[in-house]
Amino acid sequence: MSPQALLARRVVLWSLAVLVLLLSANIFGITRLELQSRAVLWAISTLPLLLFLPGLLRGAWKSYAWMCFALMIYFQVFVTEIFRKPTDLITISLLASLLLLFCAAMVFVRLRRKELAGTGA
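Below the sequence we write its predicted structure tokens.
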């Protein structure tokens, strides 16, 4: 794997971790909900992202590509939230980490497919 692809992969994994942590902080910061309700909301919000983790850790470019499709739903939600609360720092941070994750994943897919096409794999 090329150094650029390795860097993109590291950025993807770190930004995914940041995104999950920010989502967790945002959800568990909702004090008006019961703890069980927050746990269910957390599972619904984070498990779709974590489903891609085994493929991401293996470096499978198809997992990165499919994760980008799933990220579109999160993008839609975060942009809607920013229009609702434009000064909310957590929502802005969520969107920024999501955009970084998406861009790094697309760079990884592009570089990795180019490498695999060059080797005939």
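The helical segments are 3-28, 35-50, 53-58, 61-84, 89-119.
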